[in-house]
Amino acid sequence: MNQTGTSIVRFGEIQDMVKAYYPDADLDLIRAAYVYSAQVHIGQTRRSGEPYLVHPVAVAMILAQMRLDEASVATGLLHDTVEDTLATPEELERFFGKEIATLVDGVTKISKIEFESKEERQAENFRKMILAMSRDIRVLLVKLADRLHNMRTLGPMPPEAQTRIARETMEIYSPLAARLGIYWIRTELEDLAFRYLNPDRFNYIKTRLQETLKQREEYVNNVIRVVREKLEQYNIKAVIKGRNKEIYSIHQKMFAQHLDFDQIHDITAFRIILNNVSECYAVLGLIHSLWRPVPGRFKDYVAMPKSNRYQSLHTTVIGPDGLRIEIQIRTNEMDLIAEEGIAAHWSYKEGKIVEAEDAKVVNWLRQMMEWQQDLEDPREFFENVRVDLYPDEVYVFTPKGEVKEFPKGATPLDFAYSIHTEVGHRCVGARVNGKMVSLKYQLRTGDSVEIITSVHQKPSKDWLKFVKTGRARTKIRHYVLTEERERAIQMGMDSTDRELRKWRLELGRAEKEGEMLKIAHEYSFKSEADLYAAIGYGRISPKAIITRLVPPSEREKAKAALAEEKHVKKERTTTKSGVKVHGLTDVMVNFAKCCNPLPGDPIRGFITRGRGVTVHKQDCINLQTSDFKRIIDVTWDEDQPIRRTVKLGLQVENKMGMLATISGVIASADSDIVQANIKTVSDHYAEGTFMISVRNLDHLNSVMNALKSIKGVRKVDRLGVI
Ligand code: MN
């Protein structure tokens, strides 16, 4: 079935084949596709010199061999028309309907992906991307058929192209065929690719296989005869096949186990195909009774099917002549699935193949068929099919053409963080397929993504709400927490420092003396920073630090001192200045020493830099020479009685008892002497200065008048400067 080769496949053969497995097929559609393809490809030739049409016809033939539906076969005929001819998707849709136009479009898109092999991880992402882009699995089946025929006809291509295409086949397409469970395509692709990638090795193994062919055939026939006789004893009907391993898989075995060709004994694998599962286990027992099984080589893929639904019993036994032989035992259905994989499910009118045993896949396929028929918009259909292929992933290109995998819903931020943490931190947006998108844009498979950064950008807590990858989340959270922590440490230090100062302690000093580290350790923190952070976050109160820092005895002392200070402070702060500034009473006010105004004096204010308002007498010479822009109107606050200290200069007769008389008069005038200073000027005169406290100008005048009335007092002056 694999040997179509370069021979021109007559179109009629395809029709006959489809008709055979699918009598109700729409053969008109296939015929129309053939005619159209022949028209648009006319005049084109392949490198071999053959008409180009040979290729799409051969691809359609392979699809028919896989027993696919008429849409797949038609797509095979049309798959290169959009890329290589003047045909357009619109025209295809007009002639063949949306379904086929979309299938062709899918194949065209995959063909445009340029695979650059760099590492295994990349290859895997490319495979997934192709799978995701295939959406409808038939797209991939057509692509595989296309690749298979291209590989069969790779000979005329230039050597570089041969190597490149062979590599792509080995790394991308044969694993994809394996994933879909289509083993015959996988192994043929592998052998074809291997032939171009390692021709020496390929030819060596091929030659050795031919040399040993006769000998092996005899051996195979012998084994088959022994098995058949045994099964006949038990009345079990079976198909028994002996099959040479493929060249590439022999190579892999030689390579992996460092063996020569002669040391590879299980080049032939045997397959026993039965009618039901219970026969499979029965035959396994019979085989093991014939030949000794090799321990550890038995695998039960019947009870535990592979993810692609492959089922079979595998065993290795020591066969005739002491040679190891590999035997696979399975039912007809299992064999079909093993050979054709997902394509087997696709076959029409073969419902009996996939009876209830795997309801999931059957349901999926049935759903696909139903959607396909019911939905007007094929995109909706593809979305649904896609869900079953790679529901949770998207694959996008980097500017360098690499493919990156992301969870569904991933954003440019996830992409940016996958490049580098700093790129993520600085990401402000992205260009997707050349268009600007926001940070919240959700990436779609096939997008080309280019990240835009700015040095002014920094991560925000909000980003956590829409990023999808763990990496981005971790990096953003880390950044945000670090920033928050730094803030918390600063706040913790500030509040600790403030608290310590109340106790006449300093944080810097406490740190230097190791006190803070000690306390941090008491709280099981590693560092002071951790302690400050805890204080900053409000988990520990700064007061709690004091109780650990200040010994209880001193704490009492300090408390008392503090209480007193507080009391004093309170008094001071509640005492009003007695001056209103623009009607405000709580402005910080100083009285100018140069003129020392008293309540009752006409006054004005001068706005100082940082020390409030200085109140001068209106006629103060200093005020008049000051910056007039800073002079403001102020008034005495009649409601806030204050006492002011003024300085008086007295000239008195120098006689006994004069100081006592003056003191008595001042006291009886309801004033206090704050300070007194008397010095003798001569035998008869003395001069004194008295600092007294008064309520206001009237009060001062009455005090001064009382003083002037004292016998022996010659002069009383209010002195400006105190
Ligand atoms: Mn092609």
Structure summary:
It is built from 30 helices and 20 strands. By secondary structure, the protein is α+β, with helices and mostly antiparallel strands.
Describe this protein's structure:
The protein is α+β, with helices and mostly antiparallel strands. Helices cover 51% and strands 16% of the residues. The strands form 5 sheets. Strands 1, 2, 3, 4, 5 and 6 form a 6-stranded mixed beta sheet that branches. Strands 12-16-14-15-13 form a 5-stranded mixed beta sheet, with no helix packed on it. Strands 18-19-17-20 form a 4-stranded antiparallel beta sheet, covered by helices on one side. The N and C termini lie far apart (121 Å). The structure holds manganese (II) ion (MN). Manganese (II) ion is lined by residues 55, 79-80, 146. The site of manganese (II) ion has 4 residues, from loops.
Largest sheet: 6 strands, mixed
Instruction: Give the end-to-end Cα distance, rounded to a whole number of Å.
Output: 121 Å
Structural class by sheet pairing and helices: alpha+beta
Report the uncertain regions: 1-8, 346-389, 568-575
Average pLDDT reading: 81
Question: What general form does the structure show?
Answer: elongated
Q: Helix count?
A: 30
